[in-house]
Amino acid sequence: MRLRSGRLVGSDEKRRRTLATAIPDDLLIYEVLIHLPAKSLARCRCVCRFWRAAIAGAAFVHRHLQLSRARPPSSMLSIPREIDAAGDDCATSSEISFHRLPLLLPPAHAHAQPPPGASAITDTEFIFEKAWSDGITRHIIPTHCDGLVAIATATDTVFVCNPATREFVVLPPGTHNELAELLRLHSGVPVLPVALGFDQWRNRYVIARYFYKKDGEASFNEATGEWSQHCYVGHEVFTLGGGGSWEVTEYPPQAAGIQSRPRAFAVVPRPPTGWNRAGDDMADLDGKLCYVHADGEAATFRVWLADDEHDGPHELRWSLRFCIKFLYLPDDPDPDVIHHMRPVISVGDKVLSAATGKYYPCLLWAATMSDEEQEAVHFHHGLQYQRPDGSKYMAQSEDFMHHVLPYFESLVSLTSYNY
């Protein structure tokens, strides 16, 4: 025992050891460690076997997920992809990176500025990068559920990852989409999206995808001079952690929504609006099905939300949530400055959307509580990404796509049932 600044150092150390041993491990784990982020928990797993087993246990993973869901969102997930300059939709890269994007609320009374005039730069936080020797197509469509991210590609390959735990897997090959090339050439759709969700009846996470199968041979119409091909839409589901393969479901007459309990797809109507093949899109906004309709004659987007709580899964009730019209600089009144918009997350009475157009991708805030036409209220423009070595780069050209998703951490495993 020795004195330091008038205190007995040995007594302090003994007191701390006594206090630590007085706290039961269960209390320490489920009242303290449970609130730590995944990166800190990875270090805690190395303390002792008991901590490692407890953190990996289903009770801990489930409670950690509940707390993550309950926290107000503070960030999103961004996956930057550089598109092939030659226009090859199936071009690949040997790695994919994941970044945390801070959720910056717009200032009060902010007004929209078009992309050319915006100059704000937002820094992102590097999470991890995954190398894949077989290549991942540069065109992707990711989707998120409970900390997991499913990545659809321009081929039949689907990847799933947990950015918090750095798990990254490729699913077994699904049914081949026989019209993939035609879709890319004639409709500008390089990737067919997949759905990721939790099947509460089986207590498992599932991936659902659709594909096109040819029905008979192609025929030539001499009157129109065009070829035609009849086809039907097939659907299949993959259960994560099940170690199995894709399970083909029943074939409805059209593609639409999925019901998890009977594991079959159902046909549901679109909102009472027109259809813009190039600009319309569907998304998940706060757990509800969202349909975005792009006005072909003006830079206006109408966002509809589906409600099935009262009418059941076969009877969706659509309501117009909000409508956005973009304003442009007087010397550049181009109605195609913004040609695509996808809602990402809503906070209070505002929604954050990812938009692309004539110049390059941007993020924007807009009010959500009015179905009357309104302006976008604030632009986020210019995302700066961090490389694994700590250096930074700007992804601010037409050749970059920013896939921005709602996101929170979880410890859910992709290969084992730990929740």
What is the strand and helix layout of this fold?
Blueprint: E1 3-4, E2 7-8, H1 9-22, H2 25-31, H3 38-44, H4 49-56, H5 58-70, E3 75-82, E4 92-102, E5 122-123, E6 125-137, E7 140-145, E8 148-153, E9 158-162, E10 167-170, H6 180-186, E11 194-199, E12 204-214, E13 219-221, E14 226-228, E15 231-239, E16 247-248, E17 257-259, E18 264-266, E19 281-285, E20 288-294, E21 300-307, E22 317-325, E23 338-347, E24 350-357, E25 362-367, E26 373-375, E27 378-380, E28 383-386, E29 392-395, E30 400-406
Parallel strand pairs: 5-28, 22-26
Antiparallel strand pairs: 1-2, 3-4, 3-30, 4-6, 7-8, 8-9, 9-10, 11-12, 12-15, 13-14, 15-16, 17-18, 19-20, 20-21, 21-22, 23-24, 24-25, 25-27, 28-29
How is this structure best summarized?
Helix content is about 15%, strand content about 40%. It has about 425 residues and is mainly beta.
List keywords for this structure.
419 residues, mainly beta, 2 domains, 5-stranded mixed beta sheet, 4-stranded antiparallel beta sheet, 6 helices, 30 strands, disordered N terminus, SCF_F-box_component
Tally of helical segments: 6
Enumerate the spans where pLDDT stays under 50 for 5 or more consecutive residues.
1-9, 111-119, 253-261
The count of strands amounts to 30
Distance between the termini: 48 Å
Strand content: 35-45%
Radius of gyration: 25 Å
| Biggest β-sheet description | 5 strands, mixed
**How would you describe the shape?**
globular
- Mean pLDDT, to the nearest integer, reads 79
Strand order of the largest sheet: 19-20-21-22-26
**Helix/sheet category:** mainly beta
Seen as an oligomer or otherwise, the chain set is single chain
Q: Helicity level, as a percent range?
A: 10-25%
**How many structural domains does the protein architecture include?**
2
Domain F-box: 26-56
Protein name: F-box domain-containing protein
InterPro entries: F-box-like_dom_sf (IPR036047), F-box_dom (IPR001810), SCF_F-box_component (IPR050796)
Pfam family, one: F-box
